[in-house]
Amino acid sequence: MPILSRVTSLLRNLFQRRRSDEALDAEVHGYVDMLADEKIRAGMNPEDARRAARIELGGVEQTKEQVREVRAGAWLEILVQDLRYGVRTLGRSAGSTVIAVLTLALGIGANTAIFSVIDTALLRPLPYPNPDRIAMLYARSPNGETGELSPADFLDYKNELQSFEYLAGIRESSFNLAGEDRPERVAGTVVTPEFFAVMGRRAQIGRTLIPEQDKPSASRTMVLSYSLWQHRFGGDPAILGRSVYVDNIPRIVVGVMPHNFQFPGESELWLSALHAVPDQPLNPAADLSADRDSHYFDAIGRLRPGVNLRQAETEAATIARRLKQQFPHKEAGGAAVIFLHEDLVGQTRPAMLILLGAVSLLLLIACANVASIQLARGASRQRELSIRKALGASRTRLVRQLLTECVLLAVAGGGIGILLADLGLAPLRALVPHDVLGGAQLALDVRVLAFTIVVSLGSAILFGLLPALHLANPDLITVLKEAGHGAGCSSRAQQIRRVLVVSEIALAAMLLIGAGLLIRSFHHLLSAPEGFRPQGVLSLQLTLPQARYPNPNDRALFVQQVIERVAALPGVASAAAISRLPLNPGSSSRTLEVEGRTPPPAGEDSPDYLVATPDYFQSIGTPLVAGRAFTERDVSGAPGTVIVSQAAARRYWPAENPVGKHVKVGACGDDKTWCEVVGVVGDVRQHHLDQEPNPTVYVSYAQDPWPFMAFIVRTKVDPASAASAVEAAIHAVDKDQPVYNVRAMTAVIQKSVSPQRLRMSLLGLFAIVALTLACVGIYGVMAYSVAQRTHEIGIRMALGAHPRRILQVILRQGFALALTGCAMGLAGAFAVTRLLSSMLYGVSPRDAATFVGIPLLLLVVALLASYLPARRAMQVDPMVALRYE
Amino acid sequence: MSPDATNLLQGTLDMMILKALALHEMHGLGISRRIEQITKGTFQVKPGSLFPALHRMEEEGWLSSAWGDSENNRRAKYYRLTKAGRRQLESETERWGRISLAIARALEAS
User: Is the ipTM of this complex over 0.90?
Assistant: First the structure.
């Protein structure tokens, strides 16, 4: 059977090659000898006969080669040969091989990782059925900002909107879980029962909340998340129907969601609203269905099939206008409908696109570098390739050889690149908004990987094969005569390399400028005046459940006892409580009425409203500018007192001293009485470091004891070391009270700027890699140029040129390349950096310092990169160079 | 199996070699001379074509080889037909007969 016989031959050819070769050699030589014998018999003399026989054969080696080519498994043999040769060749120029492989790896790895992450963040559909039907409904105020809805508005929308199939109200919060073994604080959401119909997901066990069964006031039910069910309740299915104490109120668990459902935020439980709208945090038991003034929850809905976004928004806006006419004192007169995906992703999209752009630039630079290396390699192999061609290698064979080398490079680079990409996924996860992932995993996108590999491989091959293509019209004699450095084709290669290097430098300059801007912006951000002294301050948060502390006096007493205990601890300088920590997004504002002036419309320009204990300003380090702080006398029943911030003073009493004036705000002051302003304090950045402080009004905690608070402790020792003592003091007052977010204030600040830090770090990383690659590029081009011109340099020096002059010439060439690149990079950056403006704080996108400093840096670095080859040029020994061919 | 047109020459050479070995085994040079002889000089096989063909046909299983001594006491590789080779020779002969008959008819037709 031919197949069997072929396979046997294949195996024999592979494993017994030497023996086969020897046999073949003997056979062909035998043929020559016999042919010679024939001719001798015919009368030729032996020498001529042997020569004639050899000529007739056509060459022993050629014949043997021809046999080898038709052997079974010949292709395999050739492939192995090519591979081994390729590895040897790459190994001979190990330096540039390593650089090429690493460059490829960096380009492929960085690109794949970032593209995969951002593709997931921007493009992946949310993990709900028909996710493109889910939309948020917001109130829109006259200045265009969107905000939360009030209960009465929400109910009106719910009843009248035709565009939405379901509309639900949701309020994210965190809750105390007690019972079981230990108190714990978990994130959760209060929802109206249509919520699960909107999201479209079913429970893993039990059921979700349903309008028919979870009517307001009918039951207190809840649904658990999968992870909470596992880690707190041991994954026990008997949890269904059991009561769990949430904020000291028993709720019956009716279902558990699947493991990949986590919305909104990091919610671990969903509580059914006690009334027709989600509960108000300060007063959960109250039924606020008629309230049109408190805006504290979001509305999310599912559009009817066939309804598009604009129709829904128009309908909602019409209703909003009608409501505003009916109730003129309402703040918002419009409505906005935004797809959920857009809502989650829209804000981060600009930053992510910029990162995409940056990493693409990096890929371009990497490809340029690889191309440059390939060109250099190819140019120096002209001679070798020409000789091989003269010896009879077919063009196909040579091309295949070069191709094999490129593929080896690409495989090595690609392999390492995949590893890098995988490693990079974990830290990049922070780029993706939590709700978009919804608990799913982040993975490398195979299409992106394939694309990147193709691009890198393409540039490696394209520039690696150019020397082979030049062999199409080889003047072999010339090439062989010229001492390895041809004037013709290889100088064209050198020109291309110069162009590549200049482009690399330009792209690197753009990346560096971008990174430089972000770094300066970040520094400005960090040095923004927070308005307080964070060093040496510990913060912790807790929330007193309504059910356990129904009476305001109970809460005031709790806080007073805790502060007394904590302040008495050794190592504590002072302690206080505040309703909301600084640098905490989210706001609570109340309308401010000033005595003697017309009351402003509700909601307009309201200052931030906070309640604080007497030692707050001292503990947090905010200066008292006028008047006094709160004291123990500012308790419930005493005359109401208020402290305002400097911004509030400027806004409401521009030319006067606010101390002594009378106002009504929040719980301070009612129909009959006014509160007195007793002090002015410095501004605090309450929301973000990059936001100017709002006017703020403080009321004494004892006069409006809020259930949620943060404790601020100024310690004489390192704040973290005092944490457990402070927690113990709190638990001494109430052992079932969970405490959360225990951290130093410096950590709070760090966390508030972590998105900016991440972007800055990423872009900075790209820029540094780009700079390194560009340097390697310059070095490569200059080193090659020097090597090419060793002969010429030797002549010059022999004719009397000073070595220093040679150095200058080389340096000048390198400088010229860098200068051109910088100029192009500056132009490019000029055009493009305004895309960054949304991410910059306190720095213009055309910041002069950056635009001047970065090119200078680049030029210096480029000069350094050219210095080494230049020095080598300087050290050329004329005698050696003149002899060197 | 029918070789396609581009392999016609190769197929022809194969047939010649099979025919040359039909009677008894021979070494490379001998095969070359025999082919010359039986085609009355029309086909002169160069060693550059002969050797690859011989090795290929051996791998196909149509020939087998063994080392032996030649006329002048030189070591040489002798080839002989295998059973499969004989069958191949028969089928090739028959195929060529059909082809040449068909071509002859085509050329005669007006």
Answer: no
